[in-house]
Amino acid sequence: MSHSHGNASSANDPRQPSTAKPYIPRPVSPEDLPVDYSGFIAVILGVSGVMFRYKICSWLAIIFCAQSLANMRNLENDLKQISMAMMFAIMGLVTNYLGPNRPATKK
Questions:
Q1: Which residues 6+ apart lie within 8 Å of 61 measured at CB?
Q2: What is the C-alpha separation between 101 and 26, in angstroms, rounded?
Q3: What crossing angle do the helices spanning 55-70 and 75-98 adopt, rounded to 10°?
Q4: Rounded to whole angstroms, how far apart are CA atoms 88 and 79?
Q5: Domain residue ranges of the chain, discontinuous segments joined by +
Q6: Is 15 left (phi over 0), alpha (psi -120 to 50) or beta?
Q7: pLDDT, tens digit, for every residue of 48-87?
Q8: Phi-psi group of 53: left, alpha or beta (phi > 0 → left; psi -120 to 50 → alpha; rest → beta)
Q9: What is the pLDDT of residues 6-31, one digit of tens each?
Q10: Helix 55-70 and helix 37-51: axis angle, to 10°?
């Protein structure tokens, strides 16, 4: 049992390295990129966390901001949206945890 994979596989290799071309992605305009739904959801949740004082909305907005930041395609537009959503989320958390308490509902 001789293991001569090096010589036998290189002689029968159908690939031609001289004709290989590197992959060059086509340029895509920012208008043609898909919508960043996680960034949009982060803005909606951040605003609702601030306006309605829901802690869960503010925490979910931070999670969706992190997801949108990880999947960012267009630096300029996405960064504006993510930073706005993050500001709303942080503002909601600050007002929920450090602000005055909501008045209790009377029965």
A1: 42, 43, 45, 46, 49, 85, 86, 88, 89, 92
A2: 53
A3: 160
A4: 14
A5: 36-98
A6: beta
A7: 999 999 999 999 999 999 999 998 888 887 889 899 999 9
A8: left
A9: 555 666 778 888 888 889 988 878 77
A10: 160
> CB–CB of 89/65 below 8 Å?
yes
Task: Report the distance separating Cα 42 and Cα 50, nearest Å.
Answer: 12
Stated pTM of the model: 0.68
Reading the block at residue 102, the tokens are 């909501």
Tokens 């159908």 belong to which residue?
Answer: 14
Are 30 and 73 in contact by the 8 Å Cβ rule? The answer is no
